[in-house]
């Protein structure tokens, strides 16, 4: 089982629908393993947005806003690398906030519970009661806990009654809120990274404020952090590549060896001459640029990810690093320009890919519908959430519906039943 340091992020993106490619690029540029995302604005469990996430080598566990009176906005999700085994956990709670929960294992095989939460609307005391019940239901089942999201509470205001109530609530469970810098453009601390002891390194918390200029429609800043080394896959998804470092060749020495050693042999046999040149050329090349064997992570790439797009993405990453180092107006503008070019090229490549796929399947209605289902992430074969065992999945469903029934009964008057 492979173990590696995992990087995470908490971010209110204010709609995945119009910036899913930018969000995925941010995950790739920052080597993120897990992204806790609020305000997804998704209205379906599976659609072209979730399909785009999966085609880029990621997976998503999310919940759409269920309140019919608040159809626009909301929604929470966890986007993670496809090689990370993340299992959804079903928990019910009050209607004052939205959440989606999951778990994965640490290096010792212990489950780490993680939840993405979002609290919209007017803040009331009911939220603290609901959140207390929510943490209580987690606390009896898990010892390692991570809760991220946007609570829309001004935690930077030490005089705020609500900020004090929230701090007292999580501390009563031995949990710590790690974010200390403002996470909103207006200077308030609204987004949280809450965890139990040492699940997340407190010194690793970074609020990427400069990224507000890169994503103008986002009024929240991404909050990056680091987990410990966690088990991310049941199999080592690696591949071996073989290459030569041709850039390291000293051209003067290389040319000198060719001139002195590649002398035409005294032979009239054409095959012997060819063999001599091949052998001697290989010897010279091996001496100046020996074959290097390297093992790398084999990550799933989007099917339209070709050489042209790969080169432009490489330039984008370089521009991103330069922008972070200097934060100058010129470097920010240069990065925005190459980011937009990269985004436009990605759209073009995707159109070409799906147009070719459509033309291939258009003569068969059955094949065409199967292709459309894939494009819209409507694969019906995945009927159950991933789990360590079928019994665990059944128990999760059973507990979820028991809590549902108990909640409904509490809302009914005794005379009804």
Q: How is this structure best described in words?
A:
With 417 residues, the protein is of the alpha+beta class. It contains 10 helices and 14 strands. The chain is 38% helix and 21% strand. The model is unreliable at 231-236 (pLDDT under 50).
Quaternary state of the chains: single chain
| Radius of gyration, taken over Cα atoms and rounded to an integer in Å | 27 Å
Strands in their spatial order, largest beta sheet: 3-4-2-1-12-11
Largest sheet: 6 strands, mixed
Classify the beta-strand content into a percent band. Answer: 15-25%
Instruction: Report the structural category.
Output: alpha+beta
Q: Which consecutive residue ranges, at least 5 long each, have pLDDT under 50?
A: 231-236
Helix fraction, binned, reads 25-40%
How do the SSEs run, as a string of H and E? EHEHEEEEEHEHEEEEEHHEHHHH
Q: What is the approximate shape?
A: elongated
Q: What's the overall average pLDDT, rounded?
A: 85
DSSP strand count: 14
Q: How many H/I helical runs?
A: 10
Quote the distance from N terminus to C terminus: 52 Å
Briefly characterize the structure.
The chain has 417 residues and is of the alpha+beta class. Helix content is 38%, strand content 21%.
């Amino acid at each position: 089982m492979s173990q590696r340091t995992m990087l995470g992020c908490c971010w209110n993106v204010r709609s995945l629908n119009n910036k899913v490619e930018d969000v995925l690029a941010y995950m790739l540029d920052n080597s993120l393993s897990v992204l806790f995302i609020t305000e997804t604005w998704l209205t379906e469990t599976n659609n072209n947005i979730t399909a785009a996430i999966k085609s880029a080598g990621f997976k998503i566990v999310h919940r759409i806003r269920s309140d019919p009176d608040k159809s626009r906005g909301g929604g929470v999700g966890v986007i993670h690398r496809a090689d990370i085994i993340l299992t959804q956990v079903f928990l019910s709670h009050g209607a004052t906030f939205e959440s989606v929960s999951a778990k994965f294992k640490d290096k010792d095989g212990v489950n780490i519970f993680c939840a993405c939460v979002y609290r919209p609307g007017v803040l009331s005391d009911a939220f603290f009661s609901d959140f207390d019940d929510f943490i209580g239901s987690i606390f009896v089942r898990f010892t390692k806990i991570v809760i991220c999201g946007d609570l829309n509470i001004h935690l930077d205001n030490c005089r705020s009654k609500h900020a004090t109530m929230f701090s007292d609530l999580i501390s009563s469970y031995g949990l710590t809120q790690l974010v200390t810098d403002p996470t909103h453009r207006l200077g308030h601390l609204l987004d949280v990274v809450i965890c139990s002891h040492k699940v997340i390194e407190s010194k690793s918390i970074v609020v990427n404020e400069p990224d507000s200029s890169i994503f103008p429609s986002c009024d929240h800043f991404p909050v990056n952090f680091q987990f410990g080394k966690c088990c991310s896959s049941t199999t080592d998804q690696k591949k071996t590549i073989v290459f030569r470092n041709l850039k390291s060749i000293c051209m003067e020495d290389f040319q000198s060896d060719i001139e002195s050693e590649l002398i035409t042999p005294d032979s009239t046999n054409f095959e012997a001459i060819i063999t001599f040149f091949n052998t001697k050329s290989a010897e010279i090349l091996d001496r100046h640029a020996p074959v290097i064997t390297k093992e790398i992570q084999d990550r799933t790439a989007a099917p339209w990810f070709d050489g042209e797009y790969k080169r432009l993405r490489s330039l984008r990453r370089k521009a991103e690093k330069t922008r972070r180092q200097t934060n100058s107006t010129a470097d920010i503008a240069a990065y925005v320009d190459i980011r937009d070019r990269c985004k436009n090229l990605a759209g073009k490549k995707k159109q070409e890919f799906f147009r070719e796929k459509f033309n291939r399947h258009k003569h068969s209605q059955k094949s065409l519908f199967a292709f459309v289902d894939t494009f819209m992430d409507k694969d019906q074969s995945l009927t159950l959430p991933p789990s360590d065992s079928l019994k665990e999945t059944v128990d999760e469903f059973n507990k979820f519906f028991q809590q549902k029934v108990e909640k409904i009964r509490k809302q009914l008057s005794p005379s009804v039943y």
